[in-house]
């Protein structure tokens, strides 16, 4: 061991300057070897030496225990030296190499003869050596900074392409210790470390030429290198059920639903597979982060699952997870912030820094709670990668609320909107906001045998009231409504209670309590009528009732409910006016399955009940709410919607249109214009063959204008009609033409004969109306039973 120490010392001395880190390492090994020798053999070795040394005499007097204590202190001091030498080794300062010889010379002097004296000398001078190493370290760092400044390597670059570099450098100097993530990326308080971070981790400063470093891989380059994989339909849901996890009643509810509908999903997958033929489908890497069920968001839903709480969101998330899995995509599921951080590659700290690498997902499905959590933990990466996000949003987010600056200036700011996403990245439960994408959910389908049983077993005078919570029975004037209904029908309820019957439920109502889904289905299959009292809005239950052969009777709202007059909608990022409890059922299904009346008009209500007694309806479920319909829709979105690639400018440079109407041509005997077939094809989804251009009436939104013509407003087409030729094609005489930020533009002002184009594409909006404007509306056709897709979209 002693010979090895001497040999190591010679190696240190012989190593050339360019291998300085290796020399330090060798010196470190020598010190560790010496430390090991002292601590393991010290007591016994000293006992064999003559007693004339004060150090030896003290060891013998104190005995083995105290001797080892002294040596342990020496060992600790050596370890401290090693840590300081390790820091020294990281300096690129060759001019201080000779100082390391002072350390290696100590090893040279250690020989077998007089070892104890050498150890004694080292022990007595250990503190001085530690101080000297600290001084060397400080001088080296100081000289290193001086040298770097002299060479201009760490001066803040002046590059007009990076205008924020100087201000970011100032911020880093003042605040770099505010988040441990900066130190994680190598920031140590020096200007060089700030520049390296701001140019290589963030993107506020230009790349440093002296770093001789290639650019980190971007999302696009990473995707280009990784070969595409084809998605294959799956019918086995066991892996999905395992991924969903357990431990919460909400998760148990979702898993029960996935199991119950497993066969219907499998059948739907087979049908869609045949419909698509051999068409290639890209397999996507998808993260699903269910933010509202995380503990960090409060998760108020899970404890209420078995107490009559709302289940609509859990129904939708269960169906989204199943659809993505069945379509064959590579799925990761996050139900906590910790899981989210792990999947995304969030660096340790408080969320100020970007992710540790390229985004490992093509798509991220989350909700508003999850979006807020991602903002908190992703830092600048959220802005960089937000085009990959899809936000599940029950009631929708209109463009005026989504645009942060516009919402703040014009009174549309709420607690939810202002994320500056492309509005189609929000995905709704019902197709009520064309500016958003319609995600939906599924209702259980009946087979032929079940449909026959329903027709045979229906009880003509049986009604079920919609409302699991007693508070939903507090409709003003409900006593009169229930009294009229009770004259004709037996009334059933499914109101949750623990020990006593809820006082809000009249005694003549047969209350079954909260029923499991299977028992509720059986109850609906017997009942003829399903009655809503006005709340909850737009839930899945009415569709399930209609699918089981019930007629849905609901109240008409006059005036319509909105954020202007109703507390429930206040603060939600929408100005939508809700005309009934379930507008989708009213507008897209309608009579005889759905009847909407004024519950405050007793005569009208009673006449409607008598009419219902005479009606016979069959079970009905819109195709878009079947498993196949949802798979078809989600598949089409995933394969066609892309918000990360820049759109091709329109109109194209050097475009030449023969007519003032531009690229539009009229439909005979109609005020509608279509895309001219002789215009060169442009990349668009939906395809331009679906475009129908028309103008609204004053005070009418494009949602209403398109629907009046049996069409759907399509915001993806706005960029093609936001041109002056569109006004000419619609016979508007423009005395002035301007471009501005207004969610109603493009529009025509009859008062001033002025035509206004949209300046900011984020404000293209189907929603919104004003008595001052006639709006230009891009509409499209749609597939029967699938309003989200045009005729040529699949």
Question: Layout of SSEs?
Answer:
Elements: H1 2-14, H2 20-47, H3 54-89, H4 97-108, H5 115-151, H6 165-175, H7 180-184, H8 191-201, H9 219-225, H10 238-244, H11 249-260, H12 262-276, E1 285-289, H13 312-326, E2 330-334, H14 337-344, E3 363-366, H15 368-378, H16 381-385, E4 389-392, H17 399-402, H18 404-410, E5 426-428, E6 437-438, H19 448-457, E7 462-466, H20 478-488, E8 490-493, E9 510-511, H21 517-526, E10 529-532, H22 541-547, E11 551-561, E12 578-580, H23 583-589, E13 594-597, H24 602-614, H25 627-640, E14 664-666, E15 673-675, E16 691-695, H26 702-708, E17 712-713, H27 718-721, H28 724-729, E18 736-740, E19 747-749, E20 754-758, E21 773-780
Parallel strand pairs: 1-2, 1-3, 3-4, 4-5, 5-6, 7-8, 7-10, 8-9, 10-11, 11-13, 18-20
Antiparallel strand pairs: 11-12, 14-15, 15-16, 16-21, 17-21, 19-20, 19-21
Helix pairs in contact: 1-2, 1-4, 2-3, 2-4, 3-5, 6-8, 11-13, 12-25, 14-15, 20-24
Membrane topology: Single-pass type II membrane protein
Organism: Nothobranchius rachovii (bluefin notho)
Protein name: alpha-1,6-mannosyl-glycoprotein 6-beta-N-acetylglucosaminyltransferase
């Amino acid at each position: 061991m002693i010979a090895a120490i001497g040999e190591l010392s010679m190696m240190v001395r012989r190593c050339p300057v360019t291998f300085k880190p290796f020399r330090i390492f060798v010196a470190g090994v020598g010190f560790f070897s010496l430390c090991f020798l002292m601590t393991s053999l010290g007591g016994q070795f000293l006992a064999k030496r003559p007693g004339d040394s004060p150090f030896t005499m003290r060891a013998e007097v104190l005995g083995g225990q105290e001797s080892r204590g002294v040596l342990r202190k020496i060992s600790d001091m050596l370890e401290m030296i090693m840590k300081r030498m390790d820091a020294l080794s990281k300096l690129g300062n060759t001019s201080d190499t000779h100082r390391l010889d002072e350390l290696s010379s100590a090893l040279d002097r250690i020989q077998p003869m007089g070892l104890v004296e050498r150890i004694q000398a080292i022990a007595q001078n250990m503190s001085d050596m530690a101080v000297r190493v600290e001084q060397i370290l400080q001088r080296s760092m100081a000289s290193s900074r001086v040298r770097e400044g002299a060479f201009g390597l760490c001066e803040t670059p002046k590059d007009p392409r990076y205008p924020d570099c100087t201000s970011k450098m100032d911020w880093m100097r003042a605040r770099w210790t505010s988040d441990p993530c900066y130190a994680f990326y190598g920031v140590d308080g020096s200007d060089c470390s700030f520049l390296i971070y701001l140019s290589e981790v963030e993107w506020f400063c230009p790349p440093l030429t002296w770093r001789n470093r290639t650019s980190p891989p971007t999302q696009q380059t990473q995707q280009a290198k990784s070969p595409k994989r084809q998605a294959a339909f799956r019918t086995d849901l066991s892996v999905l059920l395992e991924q969903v996890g357990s431990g919460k009643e909400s998760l148990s509810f979702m898993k029960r639903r996935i199991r119950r509908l497993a066969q219907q999903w499998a059948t739907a997958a087979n049908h869609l597979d045949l419909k698509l033929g051999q068409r290639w489908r890209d397999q996507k890497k998808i993260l699903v982060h269910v933010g509202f069920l995380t503990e960090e968001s409060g998760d108020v839903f899970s404890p209420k699952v078995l107490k009559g709480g709302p289940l609509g969101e859990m129904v939708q998330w269960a169906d989204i997870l199943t659809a993505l899995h069945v379509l064959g995509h590579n799925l990761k599921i996050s139900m906590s912030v910790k899981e989210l951080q792990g999947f995304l590659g969030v660096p340790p700290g408080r969320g100020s820094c970007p992710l540790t690498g390229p985004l490992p997902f093509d798509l991220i499905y989350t909700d508003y709670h999850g979006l807020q959590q991602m903002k908190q933990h992703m830092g600048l990466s959220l802005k960089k990668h937000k085009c990959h996000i899809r936000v599940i949003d029950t009631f929708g987010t209109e463009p005026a609320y989504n645009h942060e600056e516009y919402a703040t200036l014009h009174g549309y700011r709420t607690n939810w909107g202002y994320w500056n996403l492309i509005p189609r990245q929000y995905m709704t439960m019902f197709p009520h906001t064309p500016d958003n994408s319609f995600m939906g959910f599924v209702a259980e389908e009946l087979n032929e045998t079940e449909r026959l049983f329903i027709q045979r077993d229906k009880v003509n005078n049986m009604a079920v009231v919609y409302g699991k919570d007693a508070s939903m029975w507090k409709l003003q004037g409900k006593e009169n409504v229930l009294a009229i209904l009770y004259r004709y029908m037996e009334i059933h309820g499914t109101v949750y209670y623990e020990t006593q019957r809820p006082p809000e439920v009249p005694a003549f109502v047969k209350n079954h309590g909260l029923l499991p889904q299977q028992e509720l289905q059986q109850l609906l299959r017997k009942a003829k009528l399903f009655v809503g009292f006005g709340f909850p809005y737009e839930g899945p239950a009415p569709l399930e009732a209609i699918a089981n052969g019930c007629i849905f009777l609901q109240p008409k709202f006059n005036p319509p409910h909105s954020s202007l007059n109703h507390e429930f909608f206040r603060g939600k990022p929408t100005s939508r006016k809700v005309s009934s409890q379930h507008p989708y059922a009213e507008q897209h299904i309608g009579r005889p399955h759905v009847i909407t009346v004024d519950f405050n008009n007793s005569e009208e209500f009673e006449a409607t009940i008598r009419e219902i007694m005479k009606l016979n309806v069959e079970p009905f479920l819109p195709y878009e709410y079947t498993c196949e319909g949802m798979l078809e829709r989600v598949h089409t979105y995933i394969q066609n919607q892309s918000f990360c690639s820049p759109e091709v400018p329109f109109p194209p440079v050097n475009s030449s249109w023969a007519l003032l109407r531009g690229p539009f041509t009229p439909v005979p005997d109609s005020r509608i214009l279509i895309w001219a077939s002789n215009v060169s094809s442009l990349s668009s989804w939906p395809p331009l063959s679906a475009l129908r251009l028309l103008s609204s009436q004053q005070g009418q939104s494009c949602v209403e204008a398109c629907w009046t013509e049996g069409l759907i407003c399509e915001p993806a087409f706005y960029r093609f009609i936001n041109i002056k030729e569109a006004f000419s094609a619609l016979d508007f005489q423009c005395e002035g033409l301007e471009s501005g930020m207004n969610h109603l533009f493009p529009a025509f002002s009859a008062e001033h004969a002025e035509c206004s184009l949209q300046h900011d594409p984020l404000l293209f909006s189907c929603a919104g109306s004003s008595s001052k404007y006639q709006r230009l509306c891009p509409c499209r056709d749609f597939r029967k039973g699938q309003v989200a897709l045009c005729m040529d979209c699949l």
